[in-house]
Amino acid sequence: MKIGALILEHYKERGTFKKHYFDKSKYYGLRMVIDSVERNYNTSVDYISMKNINEYDVVLVSLTSATDVWNLIYTFSHYGLDASKVKPKIIIGGAGVINIKTYLNFGDFFVWGRGEKTIVKLLDYIENNKKHKCNNVFERGLNDFNETFYINQTDNVYPHEVNGWKEEAIGCKKKCHFCQYTYSRKYTNSRADEQNYSTASEEHTFENLEINDNRVYVSAIDGFTERLRKIINKPIKDKQIIKKLQKAQGLGTETRVSLKLFNICGYPTETKKSYKKFINLIQSADYKKKMTPLSLHILITPFSAEPLTPAQYLPMDLETNYRKYFQSKFVGENGYVWKGNNITLYFMKYINSNWAHFQRAIVNRGGIEDGKIIEAIVNNKSFKNLSVPEKMYNIKKQTDFKKYKKKYNVDEDNEWGYLESYISNKKIDKMAQKLHNKLGI
Ligand code: SF4
Description:
Layout (H helix, E strand, L loop, with lengths): L2 E4 L21 H14 L4 E3 L9 E5 L3 H12 L11 E5 L15 E3 L6 H11 L8 E3 L9 E2 L18 E2 L9 H5 L3 E2 L26 E5 L5 H6 L6 H12 L7 E9 L7 H12 L9 E9 L19 H9 L7 E2 L3 E5 L6 H12 L2 H11 L2 H4 L3 H11 L3 H4 L13 E2 L4 H15 L2
Parallel strand pairs: 1-2, 1-3, 3-4, 4-5, 7-15, 10-11, 11-12, 12-14
Antiparallel strand pairs: 5-6, 8-9, 13-14
Helix pairs in contact: 2-9, 2-10
């Protein structure tokens, strides 16, 4: 059996065909699956493109995010192809595989969650017709959306080193209500010093952030106000923020410390005053005398209601172009928001526009028909050259736009209700209702 891993063509910047494309850490999951295939099948998996796809029997596709869905649809459809029109069986997996409805025609099998064991069973099914009982696999043409599918979990990290990297932890102990990662990946940790790591990602949780020297630090606060952070289950207090910033200024060196903080804007009930309040908070942390200089970079992401999380039914602000808003309202000519005696506050300009935000929302909340909208857009050359407001104008006019941005009631029908994670939907719905109540919506 000839097996390949498909390099997707990029909807925006074509021609990303590179030998080392999958070496990036975000493709660790795919490389682990390839490793598992190569160990169990004594074969090697090639990196392939659409040009030689028909030389293969099985092709693996990795989706790392909802954005990759747009690339997947583009990759096939601009050649006039879909999964039924190519020779190999297309198996789609990866962290970006959640609601598969918009790209159903571009795969034969869809795998949710951990795939290193599932892939072996699936290949045996394809090659030898050996039945599998994987409840994390959807087979197009056989399964339907009245069934329930589960995000596959594991209690053990992958035992082998892949590409010089060994998996040490999966998931996160914390349960921020917006975070799909923690609700779709059960926490597992093989590290001896477990207490120092509550998340598998490289980023420090804010509580664990210790600024001791002049390095670049990365952490997250994920809300502009203490009220919202508490409601979304990330209860970082204003005074904790002040304390960390003051500690950095007190290092006693002249070399600058750099702190990057991820933050989320656009939660329901957030007001524009929240941003002013946040700036005031940072100002209040600045010491009057000259101490260690601190660059504070805020990386802002608009809130996205991700399936399987307690925040999945919340409304999303797809109307505001936050990239433009923050740059025009707060960033001065010198590129910063505010400069005090020691602290310089920046709002980074790489904020998703509402167009990018919509691209995610249509995949998360879309149905089979919505897939046709994506297909039409990626194949329309003139659409690509439109400005963000022009794109949004067309989308609002030509789609059921409300469906992507609205608040869903907890018991309302939605497009992704066929999925269940390691925490039952019943439990998540209870949490969702509590969240709605706390927000008063
Ligand atoms: S946002 Fe970060 S800290 Fe919160 S649950 Fe997700 S990974 Fe953990």
